[in-house]
TrEMBL record, chains A, B:
It comes from Streptomyces enissocaesilis. Coiled coil: none annotated. SUPFAM superfamilies: Homeodomain-like. This is TetR family transcriptional regulator. Residues 40-59 bind DNA. Pfam families: TetR_C_20, TetR_N.
DNA sequence: CGCTAACCTAGAACAAGTTTCAGTATCGAT
DNA sequence: ATCGATACTGAAACTTGTTCTAGGTTAGCG
């Protein structure tokens, strides 16, 4: 097979890369104020200095834009977390500590968190590849915190997925005001117990 | 305090109750075909024989409508599940069995499931009371499956919440085509293990 | 340099959720 | 049965995501 599944997107020119950055920056800025609703495509375009049609060429929908914004923010976060690895005794403790640190970061920008998480869970099949990228990055962060000697077992991977599910869903309950920060912590710690017991 | 938090909504007349039913029925029917996008407010109104403004008086947004539709469907499901209680040895097995039965029911109507779950996770604070009702009903189903001798401990409640988080989030990954049915089963079973080990 | 394809812009147009309004029907209490 | 309040109807208007069009700009290449 000489045909690739992904035809490798042509590399962007410098100006295109700059446009993409401006758009993502604007998106994060607007989301940081009013959350999901405040990210209005016309305003993103105008404030980024591109035409509406161009915005849609770079990000085929508002959901794509916000998921890309999340990828972007996750990279920052991943870098920050790496600088100071968690100090817990057990893998479970380290994962819980890492996720709580991420949670505290999100608490500083609740509106941004709201916009990104809502986009992520509202995404339909057309955004699956991008959502999957976010998911893989989250998995990587958790596995890194576990700091396993060897490759993870299938049971451990299942536990990590449950932790991820809990993380996402607990985040939503907090963002929509249905759960307290304390409860999110308890839920995350509870899920993390699965690690040491598999 | 003689002032109630909820001023008790005036009971609906028969015709109003009938309208409400027609609307919910139409909503479920349209969702059963095309999913979230196919539930269009104008069409729901017309097909239910009410004016658009009336539809919005009963359900202040599309999200409210779909969450109410989910409440409605959950009641049906709860009734169905009650008829044949799960037969597993342990509480964990019974909960997993119950959730997998619910999952199979959803598989028969994937588009309806998609519409309801998307609405649920996309709901913002204005829908919190309704979302909370759905959450409490889900908790009730799980606790019932556990069939505990006494009232649940705080640890058990935390485990139940993690199971609920996993259930919602795993459902989303399946609906958006990012996880197989087998994987959803594994994740649910993994989360359910928390029950017997607390 | 000059060509061509791809890219970008401004703006109109379209789609679906939501709001509004004037007029009509229904309900509950007297 | 009548009256005042509330609810319902039909239709238009408004908002914001998305698509489309016509014309100008850029990038890479001979």
């Amino acid at each position: 097979m000489t045909v690739e599944a992904k035809p490798a997107p042509p590399p962007l020119t410098e100006r295109q890369e700059a446009r993409r950055r401006r758009i993502l920056h604007t998106s994060a800025r607007l989301a940081g104020r009013g959350g999901f609703d405040a990210v209005q495509m016309r305003e993103v375009a105008e404030s980024s200095g591109v035409a509406l049609g161009t915005l849609y060429r770079y990000f085929p929908s508002k959901i794509h834009l916000l998921v890309a914004t999340m990828q972007d923010q996750l990279e920052h976060l991943h870098g920050t977390l790496r600088k100071r690895p968690p100090a817990g005794e057990s893998a479970a403790e380290r994962v819980a500590e890492t996720l709580m640190r991420a949670f505290r970061a999100l608490q500083r920008e609740p509106q941004l968190a709201d916009a990104m998480v809502r986009a992520l869970t509202f995404a339909d099949r057309s955004v699956s590849p991008e959502v999957d990228t976010v998911s893989r990055q989250t998995t990587a962060i958790i596995l890194e915190a576990m700091n396993l000697p060897g490759p993870p077992t299938p049971e451990q991977l299942a536990a990590v997925r449950v932790i991820e599910h809990t993380w996402h869903s607990a985040l939503i309950t907090w963002l929509s005001g249905r759960a307290s920060i304390a409860r999110v912590r308890i839920d995350i710690e509870t899920a993390c117990r699965l690690i040491d017991r598999t």
